[in-house]
Predict the structure of Otopetrin 2.
Amino acid sequence: HDEGWMYWLKMTELLRFICLFYLTRHAGSMMRGSDIFSTSRGTVSERGRNRSWLLSSIITVNVLILGIALVSGSVFNNVKINAINLQIFLIVLVILTTAWMLYYTIYTSREDHAVLYKDSYAGPVWLRGGLVLLGLCSLIMDVFKIANYVGYLHCDSAVKIAFPVVQALFILVQTYFLWLHAKDCVQLQQNITRCGLMLTLSTNLMLWMAAVTEESIHQTVVLPEDGNSTHSYDIRAPGGSSSCNCSHSACAVLEKAYYYLYPFNIEYSLFASAMAYVMWKNVGRLVDEHNHHSLHFRLKDVLVGPAVGLVMLVAGLGTFVIYKVDVESGEPGKRDTALMIHYVMNTVAVTLMSVSTVAGCAIYRLDQRDHVSGKNPTRSLDVGLLIGASFGQFTICYFTIVAVVATGAEGHLNALNLAVSLLTVIQLCLQNIFIIEGLHREPFHEDIHRASVFTNPYVLQAQTHRDIHNLPGTFMETKTLTWKRRALKEICAFLLLCNILLWIMPAFGARPQFDNTIGAEFYEFTMWAAVVNIGLPFGIFYRMHSVASLFEVFLTS
Protein backbone atom coordinates (compact mmCIF):
# COMPACT_ATOMS: atom_id res chain seq x y z
CA HIS A 1 0.00 0.00 0.00
CA ASP A 2 2.84 2.37 0.85
CA GLU A 3 4.62 1.51 -2.40
CA GLY A 4 1.45 2.18 -4.41
CA TRP A 5 0.93 5.47 -2.62
CA MET A 6 4.48 6.51 -3.31
CA TYR A 7 4.06 5.52 -6.96
CA TRP A 8 0.96 7.68 -7.38
CA LEU A 9 2.65 10.52 -5.56
CA LYS A 10 5.60 10.39 -7.93
CA MET A 11 3.29 10.20 -10.93
CA THR A 12 1.39 13.23 -9.63
CA GLU A 13 4.62 15.17 -9.21
CA LEU A 14 5.68 14.15 -12.72
CA LEU A 15 2.36 15.23 -14.21
CA ARG A 16 2.51 18.52 -12.33
CA PHE A 17 6.04 19.09 -13.61
CA ILE A 18 4.93 18.31 -17.17
CA CYS A 19 1.97 20.67 -16.85
CA LEU A 20 4.12 23.44 -15.44
CA PHE A 21 6.70 22.90 -18.17
CA TYR A 22 4.01 23.00 -20.85
CA LEU A 23 2.36 26.07 -19.40
CA THR A 24 5.70 27.83 -19.12
CA ARG A 25 6.60 27.05 -22.70
CA HIS A 26 3.14 28.00 -23.90
CA ALA A 27 3.17 31.26 -21.95
CA GLY A 28 6.62 32.05 -23.33
CA SER A 29 5.45 31.42 -26.86
CA MET A 30 2.39 33.56 -26.23
CA MET A 31 4.56 36.38 -24.91
CA ARG A 32 6.90 36.08 -27.86
CA GLY A 33 3.92 36.06 -30.17
CA SER A 34 2.58 39.15 -28.44
CA ASP A 35 5.95 40.87 -28.77
CA ILE A 36 6.17 39.89 -32.40
CA PHE A 37 2.65 41.16 -32.98
CA SER A 38 3.42 44.41 -31.17
CA THR A 39 6.67 44.86 -33.07
CA SER A 40 4.93 44.03 -36.31
CA ARG A 41 2.19 46.51 -35.57
CA GLY A 42 4.77 49.19 -34.74
CA THR A 43 6.64 48.43 -37.95
CA VAL A 44 3.45 48.66 -39.98
CA SER A 45 2.61 51.98 -38.31
CA GLU A 46 6.11 53.30 -39.01
CA ARG A 47 5.90 52.20 -42.62
CA GLY A 48 2.50 53.84 -42.99
CA ARG A 49 3.82 57.09 -41.59
CA ASN A 50 6.84 57.02 -43.89
CA ARG A 51 4.60 56.36 -46.88
CA SER A 52 2.35 59.29 -46.02
CA TRP A 53 5.37 61.54 -45.54
CA LEU A 54 6.73 60.43 -48.89
CA LEU A 55 3.39 60.92 -50.66
CA SER A 56 2.83 64.38 -49.20
CA SER A 57 6.40 65.39 -50.04
CA ILE A 58 5.93 64.23 -53.63
CA ILE A 59 2.81 66.40 -53.89
CA THR A 60 4.75 69.41 -52.63
CA VAL A 61 7.70 68.90 -54.96
CA ASN A 62 5.51 68.51 -58.04
CA VAL A 63 3.32 71.52 -57.24
CA LEU A 64 6.31 73.74 -56.50
CA ILE A 65 8.35 72.76 -59.55
CA LEU A 66 5.36 73.22 -61.85
CA GLY A 67 4.64 76.54 -60.19
CA ILE A 68 8.23 77.72 -60.53
CA ALA A 69 8.12 76.90 -64.23
CA LEU A 70 4.90 78.88 -64.67
CA VAL A 71 6.17 81.84 -62.63
CA SER A 72 9.42 81.93 -64.59
CA GLY A 73 7.63 81.62 -67.90
CA SER A 74 5.08 84.33 -67.11
CA VAL A 75 7.82 86.90 -66.53
CA PHE A 76 9.06 87.09 -70.11
CA ASN A 77 7.12 88.19 -73.16
CA ASN A 78 8.92 85.84 -75.53
CA VAL A 79 7.52 82.81 -73.66
CA LYS A 80 3.95 81.89 -74.57
CA ILE A 81 2.84 81.84 -70.94
CA ASN A 82 1.33 84.98 -69.52
CA ALA A 83 0.19 86.10 -66.09
CA ILE A 84 -3.33 84.84 -66.83
CA ASN A 85 -2.11 81.25 -67.13
CA LEU A 86 -0.28 81.55 -63.83
CA GLN A 87 -3.32 83.00 -62.11
CA ILE A 88 -5.54 80.17 -63.39
CA PHE A 89 -3.09 77.68 -61.90
CA LEU A 90 -3.10 79.57 -58.60
CA ILE A 91 -6.90 79.74 -58.56
CA VAL A 92 -7.11 75.95 -58.91
CA LEU A 93 -4.59 75.48 -56.10
CA VAL A 94 -6.36 77.95 -53.83
CA ILE A 95 -9.78 76.37 -54.39
CA LEU A 96 -8.47 72.86 -53.66
CA THR A 97 -6.70 74.04 -50.51
CA THR A 98 -9.73 75.98 -49.29
CA ALA A 99 -11.95 72.94 -49.82
CA TRP A 100 -9.56 70.74 -47.84
CA MET A 101 -9.35 73.21 -44.94
CA LEU A 102 -13.14 73.36 -44.74
CA TYR A 103 -13.30 69.55 -44.79
CA TYR A 104 -10.67 69.31 -42.03
CA THR A 105 -12.48 71.84 -39.85
CA ILE A 106 -15.83 70.06 -40.21
CA TYR A 107 -14.35 66.59 -39.71
CA THR A 108 -12.37 67.41 -36.57
CA SER A 109 -15.35 69.22 -35.05
CA ARG A 110 -17.51 66.09 -35.44
CA GLU A 111 -14.93 63.47 -34.42
CA ASP A 112 -14.11 63.57 -30.71
CA HIS A 113 -10.95 61.48 -31.06
CA ALA A 114 -9.53 63.18 -34.15
CA VAL A 115 -7.32 65.53 -32.13
CA LEU A 116 -6.27 64.08 -28.79
CA TYR A 117 -3.21 66.26 -28.19
CA LYS A 118 -2.26 69.89 -28.63
CA ASP A 119 1.28 71.18 -29.14
CA SER A 120 1.40 74.12 -26.76
CA TYR A 121 4.59 75.46 -28.37
CA ALA A 122 3.05 75.65 -31.85
CA GLY A 123 1.10 78.70 -32.96
CA PRO A 124 1.40 80.96 -29.89
CA VAL A 125 -1.24 83.64 -29.61
CA TRP A 126 1.12 86.46 -30.63
CA LEU A 127 2.05 84.58 -33.81
CA ARG A 128 -1.59 83.95 -34.68
CA GLY A 129 -2.35 87.58 -33.89
CA GLY A 130 0.38 88.63 -36.32
CA LEU A 131 -1.12 86.30 -38.91
CA VAL A 132 -4.51 87.97 -38.47
CA LEU A 133 -2.97 91.44 -38.87
CA LEU A 134 -1.06 90.43 -42.00
CA GLY A 135 -4.17 88.72 -43.34
CA LEU A 136 -6.19 91.90 -42.83
CA CYS A 137 -3.65 93.91 -44.82
CA SER A 138 -3.73 91.23 -47.52
CA LEU A 139 -7.52 91.49 -47.72
CA ILE A 140 -7.24 95.25 -48.18
CA MET A 141 -4.71 94.64 -50.94
CA ASP A 142 -7.13 92.27 -52.69
CA VAL A 143 -9.91 94.85 -52.44
CA PHE A 144 -7.67 97.46 -54.06
CA LYS A 145 -6.71 94.97 -56.78
CA ILE A 146 -10.35 94.20 -57.55
CA ALA A 147 -11.22 97.90 -57.73
CA ASN A 148 -8.22 98.52 -59.97
CA TYR A 149 -8.84 95.63 -62.38
CA VAL A 150 -12.50 96.54 -62.75
CA GLY A 151 -11.26 99.52 -64.74
CA TYR A 152 -9.54 97.16 -67.21
CA LEU A 153 -12.37 94.65 -67.52
CA HIS A 154 -13.46 96.01 -70.90
CA CYS A 155 -10.11 95.15 -72.48
CA ASP A 156 -8.48 92.57 -70.21
CA SER A 157 -9.23 89.10 -68.89
CA ALA A 158 -11.77 88.59 -66.08
CA VAL A 159 -9.29 86.19 -64.47
CA LYS A 160 -7.46 89.21 -63.06
CA ILE A 161 -10.57 90.01 -61.04
CA ALA A 162 -11.38 86.40 -60.16
CA PHE A 163 -7.94 85.76 -58.69
CA PRO A 164 -8.02 88.42 -55.92
CA VAL A 165 -11.62 87.42 -55.12
CA VAL A 166 -10.64 83.77 -54.66
CA GLN A 167 -7.48 84.76 -52.78
CA ALA A 168 -9.49 86.92 -50.37
CA LEU A 169 -11.79 83.99 -49.61
CA PHE A 170 -8.74 81.76 -49.15
CA ILE A 171 -7.18 84.22 -46.68
CA LEU A 172 -10.36 84.34 -44.62
CA VAL A 173 -10.71 80.55 -44.45
CA GLN A 174 -7.01 79.92 -43.83
CA THR A 175 -6.73 82.52 -41.07
CA TYR A 176 -9.72 80.96 -39.30
CA PHE A 177 -8.29 77.47 -39.87
CA LEU A 178 -4.84 78.30 -38.48
CA TRP A 179 -6.24 80.25 -35.55
CA LEU A 180 -8.24 77.20 -34.42
CA HIS A 181 -6.03 74.30 -35.46
CA ALA A 182 -2.40 75.48 -35.42
CA LYS A 183 -1.74 73.41 -32.28
CA ASP A 184 -3.44 70.20 -33.46
CA CYS A 185 -1.74 66.81 -33.28
CA VAL A 186 -4.11 64.82 -35.49
CA GLN A 187 -4.53 61.10 -34.75
CA LEU A 188 -7.16 60.12 -37.34
CA GLN A 189 -6.92 60.23 -41.15
CA GLN A 190 -3.22 60.94 -40.89
CA ASN A 191 -2.45 60.28 -44.56
CA ILE A 192 -5.13 62.66 -45.81
CA THR A 193 -4.13 65.28 -43.26
CA ARG A 194 -0.45 65.15 -44.20
CA CYS A 195 -1.26 65.50 -47.88
CA GLY A 196 -3.69 68.33 -47.20
CA LEU A 197 -1.18 70.22 -45.09
CA MET A 198 1.50 69.84 -47.74
CA LEU A 199 -0.98 71.13 -50.30
CA THR A 200 -1.59 74.12 -48.02
CA LEU A 201 2.15 74.67 -47.68
CA SER A 202 2.65 74.44 -51.45
CA THR A 203 -0.19 76.86 -52.16
CA ASN A 204 1.18 79.46 -49.77
CA LEU A 205 4.67 79.13 -51.20
CA MET A 206 3.30 79.54 -54.71
CA LEU A 207 1.39 82.66 -53.69
CA TRP A 208 4.59 83.92 -52.07
CA MET A 209 6.64 83.30 -55.22
CA ALA A 210 4.06 84.99 -57.43
CA ALA A 211 3.85 88.02 -55.13
CA VAL A 212 7.63 88.29 -54.77
CA THR A 213 8.08 88.13 -58.54
CA GLU A 214 5.45 90.78 -59.16
CA GLU A 215 6.82 93.07 -56.46
CA SER A 216 10.44 92.59 -57.55
CA ILE A 217 9.63 93.48 -61.14
CA HIS A 218 7.82 96.57 -59.94
CA GLN A 219 10.74 97.67 -57.74
CA THR A 220 13.59 96.81 -60.13
CA VAL A 221 15.20 99.96 -61.50
CA VAL A 222 18.05 100.40 -63.94
CA LEU A 223 20.29 103.39 -64.40
CA PRO A 224 20.49 104.63 -68.00
CA GLU A 225 23.84 105.08 -69.65
CA ASP A 226 23.84 108.83 -69.10
CA GLY A 227 23.43 108.24 -65.36
CA ASN A 228 21.02 111.15 -64.96
CA SER A 229 17.89 109.36 -63.85
CA THR A 230 16.45 106.06 -62.86
CA HIS A 231 13.35 104.39 -64.12
CA SER A 232 11.47 101.16 -63.55
CA TYR A 233 12.57 98.30 -65.69
CA ASP A 234 9.76 95.84 -66.40
CA ILE A 235 10.96 92.93 -68.50
CA ARG A 236 7.38 91.97 -69.30
CA ALA A 237 6.66 95.31 -70.94
CA PRO A 238 9.77 96.50 -72.73
CA GLY A 239 8.08 99.46 -74.30
CA GLY A 240 6.58 100.65 -71.05
CA SER A 241 3.14 101.11 -72.66
CA SER A 242 -0.05 99.10 -73.00
CA SER A 243 -3.02 99.30 -75.32
CA CYS A 244 -5.46 98.64 -72.46
CA ASN A 245 -6.39 101.82 -70.60
CA CYS A 246 -8.27 102.11 -67.33
CA SER A 247 -11.88 103.24 -67.52
CA HIS A 248 -11.83 105.23 -64.27
CA SER A 249 -9.44 107.78 -62.81
CA ALA A 250 -8.52 105.94 -59.60
CA CYS A 251 -6.46 103.18 -61.21
CA ALA A 252 -3.07 104.83 -60.68
CA VAL A 253 -3.79 105.50 -57.00
CA LEU A 254 -5.14 102.00 -56.42
CA GLU A 255 -2.16 100.39 -58.13
CA LYS A 256 0.31 102.33 -56.02
CA ALA A 257 -1.70 101.53 -52.89
CA TYR A 258 -1.80 97.78 -53.36
CA TYR A 259 1.88 97.64 -54.24
CA TYR A 260 2.60 99.18 -50.84
CA LEU A 261 0.60 96.34 -49.26
CA TYR A 262 2.53 93.59 -51.04
CA PRO A 263 5.06 93.17 -48.17
CA PHE A 264 2.26 92.24 -45.77
CA ASN A 265 0.84 89.70 -48.21
CA ILE A 266 4.29 88.21 -48.75
CA GLU A 267 4.87 87.82 -45.01
CA TYR A 268 1.37 86.38 -44.56
CA SER A 269 2.10 83.59 -47.02
CA LEU A 270 5.37 82.75 -45.27
CA PHE A 271 3.78 82.79 -41.81
CA ALA A 272 1.03 80.46 -43.02
CA SER A 273 3.58 78.16 -44.69
CA ALA A 274 5.57 77.85 -41.47
CA MET A 275 2.47 77.10 -39.41
CA ALA A 276 1.29 74.49 -41.93
CA TYR A 277 4.70 72.81 -41.78
CA VAL A 278 4.56 72.59 -37.98
CA MET A 279 1.08 71.07 -38.19
CA TRP A 280 2.42 68.54 -40.72
CA LYS A 281 5.22 67.56 -38.34
CA ASN A 282 2.70 67.19 -35.50
CA VAL A 283 0.41 64.75 -37.32
CA GLY A 284 0.28 61.57 -35.24
CA ARG A 285 2.54 63.05 -32.57
CA LEU A 286 2.02 62.29 -28.88
CA VAL A 287 2.84 65.46 -26.98
CA ASP A 288 4.09 65.60 -23.41
CA GLU A 289 2.79 68.76 -21.77
CA HIS A 290 4.61 68.69 -18.45
CA ASN A 291 7.55 70.80 -19.62
CA HIS A 292 5.50 73.67 -20.95
CA HIS A 293 5.99 77.07 -19.35
CA SER A 294 3.36 79.78 -19.28
CA LEU A 295 4.93 82.94 -20.69
CA HIS A 296 3.54 86.44 -20.30
CA PHE A 297 4.45 89.68 -22.04
CA ARG A 298 5.43 92.47 -19.65
CA LEU A 299 7.48 95.60 -20.27
CA LYS A 300 7.95 96.25 -16.56
CA ASP A 301 11.50 97.29 -15.63
CA VAL A 302 12.51 97.38 -19.32
CA LEU A 303 13.14 100.92 -20.54
CA VAL A 304 16.50 101.56 -22.20
CA GLY A 305 16.19 98.98 -24.98
CA PRO A 306 12.72 100.03 -26.18
CA ALA A 307 13.61 103.73 -25.88
CA VAL A 308 16.81 103.48 -27.92
CA GLY A 309 15.09 101.15 -30.37
CA LEU A 310 12.25 103.62 -30.90
CA VAL A 311 14.75 106.42 -31.48
CA MET A 312 16.49 104.29 -34.10
CA LEU A 313 13.16 103.37 -35.68
CA VAL A 314 11.96 106.97 -35.95
CA ALA A 315 15.32 108.19 -37.23
CA GLY A 316 15.48 105.35 -39.74
CA LEU A 317 11.99 106.05 -41.04
CA GLY A 318 12.90 109.71 -41.45
CA THR A 319 16.00 108.89 -43.48
CA PHE A 320 13.99 106.37 -45.50
CA VAL A 321 11.45 109.02 -46.49
CA ILE A 322 14.27 111.38 -47.50
CA TYR A 323 15.88 108.57 -49.47
CA LYS A 324 12.70 107.75 -51.38
CA VAL A 325 11.92 111.38 -52.21
CA ASP A 326 15.44 112.28 -53.33
CA VAL A 327 15.98 109.11 -55.37
CA GLU A 328 12.66 109.46 -57.17
CA SER A 329 13.48 113.07 -58.01
CA GLY A 330 16.02 111.79 -60.54
CA GLU A 331 18.72 114.36 -59.77
CA PRO A 332 22.19 112.75 -59.45
CA GLY A 333 23.29 115.06 -56.63
CA LYS A 334 20.23 114.35 -54.52
CA ARG A 335 20.49 110.65 -55.27
CA ASP A 336 24.08 110.49 -54.03
CA THR A 337 23.19 112.42 -50.88
CA ALA A 338 20.24 110.14 -50.22
CA LEU A 339 22.42 107.07 -50.67
CA MET A 340 25.01 108.47 -48.27
CA ILE A 341 22.36 109.15 -45.60
CA HIS A 342 20.94 105.67 -46.13
CA TYR A 343 24.35 104.03 -45.77
CA VAL A 344 25.20 106.03 -42.64
CA MET A 345 21.89 105.09 -41.02
CA ASN A 346 22.39 101.42 -41.79
CA THR A 347 25.98 101.56 -40.54
CA VAL A 348 24.89 103.00 -37.20
CA ALA A 349 22.05 100.48 -36.88
CA VAL A 350 24.04 97.33 -37.60
CA THR A 351 26.95 98.53 -35.45
CA LEU A 352 24.74 99.07 -32.41
CA MET A 353 23.01 95.76 -33.08
CA SER A 354 26.35 93.95 -33.24
CA VAL A 355 27.49 95.46 -29.94
CA SER A 356 24.17 94.50 -28.33
CA THR A 357 24.36 90.90 -29.52
CA VAL A 358 27.94 90.58 -28.25
CA ALA A 359 26.74 91.76 -24.84
CA GLY A 360 23.84 89.31 -24.99
CA CYS A 361 26.12 86.40 -25.86
CA ALA A 362 28.38 87.36 -22.94
CA ILE A 363 25.38 87.26 -20.60
CA TYR A 364 24.51 83.80 -21.90
CA ARG A 365 27.98 82.67 -20.83
CA LEU A 366 27.12 83.75 -17.27
CA ASP A 367 23.64 82.29 -17.45
CA GLN A 368 22.93 79.17 -15.40
CA ARG A 369 19.78 78.14 -17.25
CA ASP A 370 19.65 74.67 -18.71
CA HIS A 371 19.35 74.02 -22.40
CA VAL A 372 16.01 72.68 -23.55
CA SER A 373 15.78 68.95 -24.12
CA GLY A 374 13.59 66.95 -26.45
CA LYS A 375 12.43 67.48 -29.99
CA ASN A 376 10.30 70.47 -30.85
CA PRO A 377 9.19 71.02 -34.48
CA THR A 378 8.51 74.71 -33.89
CA ARG A 379 11.97 75.43 -32.51
CA SER A 380 13.69 73.37 -35.19
CA LEU A 381 11.78 75.23 -37.90
CA ASP A 382 12.62 78.61 -36.35
CA VAL A 383 16.32 77.83 -36.35
CA GLY A 384 16.24 76.42 -39.88
CA LEU A 385 14.37 79.42 -41.28
CA LEU A 386 16.65 81.83 -39.46
CA ILE A 387 19.80 80.32 -40.92
CA GLY A 388 18.32 79.67 -44.36
CA ALA A 389 16.80 83.12 -44.79
CA SER A 390 20.05 84.83 -43.80
CA PHE A 391 21.73 83.35 -46.89
CA GLY A 392 19.89 85.86 -49.06
CA GLN A 393 21.41 88.83 -47.24
CA PHE A 394 24.79 87.11 -47.09
CA THR A 395 24.70 86.66 -50.87
CA ILE A 396 23.99 90.32 -51.61
CA CYS A 397 26.60 91.50 -49.10
CA TYR A 398 29.38 89.29 -50.43
CA PHE A 399 28.60 90.14 -54.06
CA THR A 400 28.74 93.82 -53.09
CA ILE A 401 32.02 93.38 -51.20
CA VAL A 402 33.65 91.69 -54.19
CA ALA A 403 32.41 94.38 -56.59
CA VAL A 404 33.56 97.29 -54.40
CA VAL A 405 36.96 95.81 -53.58
CA ALA A 406 37.61 94.80 -57.20
CA THR A 407 36.87 98.32 -58.44
CA GLY A 408 39.07 99.97 -55.82
CA ALA A 409 36.38 101.34 -53.45
CA GLU A 410 36.78 104.86 -54.81
CA GLY A 411 34.69 107.63 -53.31
CA HIS A 412 32.71 108.02 -50.12
CA LEU A 413 29.68 106.13 -51.42
CA ASN A 414 31.64 103.02 -52.26
CA ALA A 415 33.52 103.16 -48.95
CA LEU A 416 30.24 103.39 -47.04
CA ASN A 417 28.75 100.64 -49.19
CA LEU A 418 31.68 98.38 -48.33
CA ALA A 419 31.45 99.22 -44.63
CA VAL A 420 27.71 98.50 -44.50
CA SER A 421 28.16 95.17 -46.27
CA LEU A 422 30.96 94.03 -43.96
CA LEU A 423 29.15 95.13 -40.82
CA THR A 424 25.93 93.48 -41.99
CA VAL A 425 27.73 90.15 -42.42
CA ILE A 426 29.10 90.44 -38.87
CA GLN A 427 25.72 91.47 -37.50
CA LEU A 428 23.93 88.56 -39.16
CA CYS A 429 26.37 86.04 -37.71
CA LEU A 430 26.18 87.50 -34.20
CA GLN A 431 22.39 87.84 -34.25
CA ASN A 432 21.94 84.25 -35.42
CA ILE A 433 24.10 83.02 -32.55
CA PHE A 434 22.23 85.17 -30.03
CA ILE A 435 18.75 84.11 -31.18
CA ILE A 436 19.56 80.41 -31.53
CA GLU A 437 21.14 80.36 -28.08
CA GLY A 438 18.11 82.12 -26.62
CA LEU A 439 15.66 79.74 -28.27
CA HIS A 440 17.49 76.76 -26.78
CA ARG A 441 17.45 78.04 -23.18
CA GLU A 442 14.86 77.13 -20.60
CA PRO A 443 12.70 80.06 -19.46
CA PHE A 444 13.80 81.93 -16.37
CA HIS A 445 12.08 80.98 -13.13
CA GLU A 446 10.79 84.14 -11.53
CA ASP A 447 12.02 84.98 -8.06
CA ILE A 448 9.01 85.72 -5.91
CA HIS A 449 9.69 87.57 -2.70
CA ARG A 450 6.96 87.33 -0.12
CA ALA A 451 6.61 90.04 2.47
CA SER A 452 4.26 89.72 5.43
CA VAL A 453 2.22 92.84 5.99
CA PHE A 454 0.58 93.20 9.38
CA THR A 455 -1.79 96.08 9.97
CA ASN A 456 -3.67 97.39 12.96
CA PRO A 457 -6.96 95.47 13.22
CA TYR A 458 -8.70 98.52 14.71
CA VAL A 459 -7.76 100.59 11.70
CA LEU A 460 -9.04 97.81 9.46
CA GLN A 461 -12.40 97.92 11.18
CA ALA A 462 -12.60 101.64 10.55
CA GLN A 463 -11.49 101.34 6.94
CA THR A 464 -13.38 98.34 5.62
CA HIS A 465 -13.22 99.68 2.08
CA ARG A 466 -9.51 98.85 1.82
CA ASP A 467 -8.29 96.10 -0.45
CA ILE A 468 -8.37 92.58 0.92
CA HIS A 469 -4.61 92.29 0.41
CA ASN A 470 -4.11 94.55 3.44
CA LEU A 471 -5.74 92.11 5.86
CA PRO A 472 -3.61 90.81 8.77
CA GLY A 473 -1.27 88.05 7.75
CA THR A 474 -1.87 88.56 4.03
CA PHE A 475 1.14 88.03 1.74
CA MET A 476 1.98 90.47 -1.03
CA GLU A 477 3.94 89.05 -3.97
CA THR A 478 6.49 91.27 -5.66
CA LYS A 479 8.25 90.04 -8.78
CA THR A 480 11.67 91.45 -9.51
CA LEU A 481 13.97 90.95 -12.47
CA THR A 482 17.57 89.98 -11.98
CA TRP A 483 20.15 92.08 -13.81
CA LYS A 484 20.72 89.29 -16.34
CA ARG A 485 17.03 89.03 -17.13
CA ARG A 486 16.67 92.78 -17.44
CA ALA A 487 19.73 93.08 -19.68
CA LEU A 488 18.54 90.30 -21.98
CA LYS A 489 15.09 91.85 -22.25
CA GLU A 490 16.59 95.26 -23.03
CA ILE A 491 18.77 93.74 -25.75
CA CYS A 492 15.89 91.77 -27.25
CA ALA A 493 13.63 94.83 -27.34
CA PHE A 494 16.31 96.94 -29.01
CA LEU A 495 17.15 94.28 -31.60
CA LEU A 496 13.47 93.69 -32.30
CA LEU A 497 12.82 97.35 -33.15
CA CYS A 498 15.99 97.60 -35.24
CA ASN A 499 14.98 94.52 -37.22
CA ILE A 500 11.58 96.11 -37.85
CA LEU A 501 13.40 99.12 -39.28
CA LEU A 502 15.62 96.95 -41.47
CA TRP A 503 12.50 95.12 -42.67
CA ILE A 504 10.55 98.28 -43.49
CA MET A 505 13.19 99.92 -45.67
CA PRO A 506 13.68 97.17 -48.29
CA ALA A 507 10.10 95.91 -48.04
CA PHE A 508 8.70 99.30 -49.01
CA GLY A 509 11.02 100.11 -51.86
CA ALA A 510 14.57 100.95 -50.73
CA ARG A 511 16.81 99.56 -53.46
CA PRO A 512 20.31 100.99 -52.96
CA GLN A 513 21.62 97.97 -54.86
CA PHE A 514 20.17 99.50 -58.04
CA ASP A 515 20.51 103.17 -57.14
CA ASN A 516 24.24 102.65 -56.63
CA THR A 517 25.40 101.44 -60.03
CA ILE A 518 28.58 99.66 -58.98
CA GLY A 519 26.93 96.23 -58.80
CA ALA A 520 25.20 96.54 -62.17
CA GLU A 521 28.37 97.83 -63.81
CA PHE A 522 30.61 95.12 -62.36
CA TYR A 523 28.34 92.08 -62.84
CA GLU A 524 26.22 93.38 -65.76
CA PHE A 525 22.63 94.32 -65.07
CA THR A 526 21.01 90.95 -65.84
CA MET A 527 23.17 89.01 -63.40
CA TRP A 528 23.03 91.70 -60.73
CA ALA A 529 19.23 91.96 -60.98
CA ALA A 530 18.97 88.18 -60.54
CA VAL A 531 21.22 88.26 -57.45
CA VAL A 532 19.29 91.10 -55.84
CA ASN A 533 15.79 89.90 -56.75
CA ILE A 534 16.51 86.39 -55.46
CA GLY A 535 18.48 87.32 -52.36
CA LEU A 536 16.48 90.33 -51.20
CA PRO A 537 13.13 88.54 -50.56
CA PHE A 538 14.95 86.11 -48.29
CA GLY A 539 16.71 89.00 -46.58
CA ILE A 540 13.39 90.75 -46.00
CA PHE A 541 11.87 87.58 -44.58
CA TYR A 542 14.93 87.13 -42.37
CA ARG A 543 14.25 90.45 -40.66
CA MET A 544 10.59 89.65 -40.04
CA HIS A 545 11.42 86.16 -38.81
CA SER A 546 14.07 87.65 -36.52
CA VAL A 547 11.40 89.92 -35.04
CA ALA A 548 9.23 86.90 -34.21
CA SER A 549 12.18 84.93 -32.78
CA LEU A 550 13.43 87.86 -30.72
CA PHE A 551 9.96 88.32 -29.27
CA GLU A 552 10.01 84.71 -28.14
CA VAL A 553 13.48 85.13 -26.63
CA PHE A 554 12.18 88.25 -24.87
CA LEU A 555 9.35 86.23 -23.34
CA THR A 556 11.62 83.45 -22.10
CA SER A 557 14.28 85.80 -20.69
Q: What stands out?
A: The two ends are 89 Å apart (CA to CA). The mean pLDDT is 79.
